[in-house]
């Protein structure tokens, strides 16, 4: 029996997030179907995160214990044959038996896309929030810098979360423009439930003048979810990179 680290990409539009649920199709469930079709065993796959319904991933890592002789590109190709077109495995490698894709990750990077054109863009419709009003990405980048550092992000966690420790360290946070596409990116040692989407929603409140440009430190200090902005829609969010010291690459 070997532990394999499987890395995949997916368009989350049609899925109720990563984790298996009784009331909807999830990425984990579909991947387990593919593993069973290839190996003959319905094995558990352990993910690096719990992405929400409608959230996408450029790099999502999960662990599989299997005695199948297939490895590397051969297993990736076999799984992709059985996976729908909106999910694709692009790397398979053997890792240590004790490796855990979530707890051994030293950080993650998320991006949030905003299509900032006057008219909607059909290509980005599934992957970006459409906002007609012109955003000042330079001003938003200055405001986003206040997220950087070690803070209690309780105000940026969805109500009802049972997480006890809400302190996280944000290593990098910025807003950049690529033509009419505005991209918010944040890298941290970990994230709370809906944290990135609330960070984006708060920046959009600043952009609209409903919050002051220097509001973020006060919101962090308050610890109150009601002090932060609304939760931005899921479709703009993408898990872009998972960082590991060794096995994850």
What are the main properties of this structure?
249 residues; alpha+beta; Alpha-Beta Plaits; 2 domains; ten-stranded mixed sheet; 31% strand; globular
Low-confidence stretches: none
Instruction: Sum up the overall morphology in one term.
Output: globular
Q: What integer is the average pLDDT?
A: 96
User: Main beta sheet, described?
Assistant: 10 strands, mixed
CATH architecture of the largest domain: 2-Layer Sandwich
Distance between the termini: 22 Å
Content-based structural category: alpha+beta
User: DSSP helix count?
Assistant: 5
- Quickly name the level 1 CATH class of the largest domain: Alpha Beta
CATH fold type of the largest domain: Alpha-Beta Plaits
CATH superfamily of the largest domain: Pseudouridine synthase I, catalytic domain, C-terminal subdomain
How much β-strand is present in the residues? 25-35%
Total strand segments: 10
Helical content class = 10-25%
What's the alpha carbon Rg, rounded to whole Å?
19 Å
Domains, number: 2
Question: What is the string of SSEs from the N terminus onward?
Answer: EHEEHEEEHEEEHHE
């Amino acid at each position: 029996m070997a532990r394999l680290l499987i890395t995949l990409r997916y368009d989350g539009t049609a899925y109720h997030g990563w984790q298996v649920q009784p009331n909807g199709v999830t990425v984990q469930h579909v991947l387990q179907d593919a593993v069973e079709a290839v190996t003959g065993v319905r094995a558990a796959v352990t993910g690096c995160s719990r992405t929400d319904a409608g959230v996408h991933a450029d790099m999502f890592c999960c662990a599989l214990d299997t005695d199948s002789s297939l490895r590397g590109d051969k297993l990736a190709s076999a799984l992709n044959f059985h996976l729908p077109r909106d999910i694709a495995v692009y790397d398979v490698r053997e890792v240590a038996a004790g490796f855990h894709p979530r707890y051994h990750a030293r950080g993650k990077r998320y991006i949030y896309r905003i299509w900032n054109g006057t008219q909607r863009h059909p290509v980005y419709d599934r992957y970006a929030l459409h906002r007609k009003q012109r955003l000042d990405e330079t001003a938003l980048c200055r405001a986003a810098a206040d997220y950087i550092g070690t803070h209690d992000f309780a105000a940026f966690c969805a109500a009802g979360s049972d997480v006890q420790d809400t302190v996280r360290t944000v290593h990098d946070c910025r807003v950049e423009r690529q033509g009419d596409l505005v991209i918010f990116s944040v890298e941290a040692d970990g994230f709370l439930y809906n944290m990135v989407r609330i960070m984006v929603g708060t920046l959009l409140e600043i952009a609209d003048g409903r919050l002051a440009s220097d509001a973020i430190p006060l919101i962090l200090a308050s610890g109150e979810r009601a002090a932060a902005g609304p939760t931005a829609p899921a479709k703009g969010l993408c898990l872009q990179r998972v960082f590991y010291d060794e096995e994850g690459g």
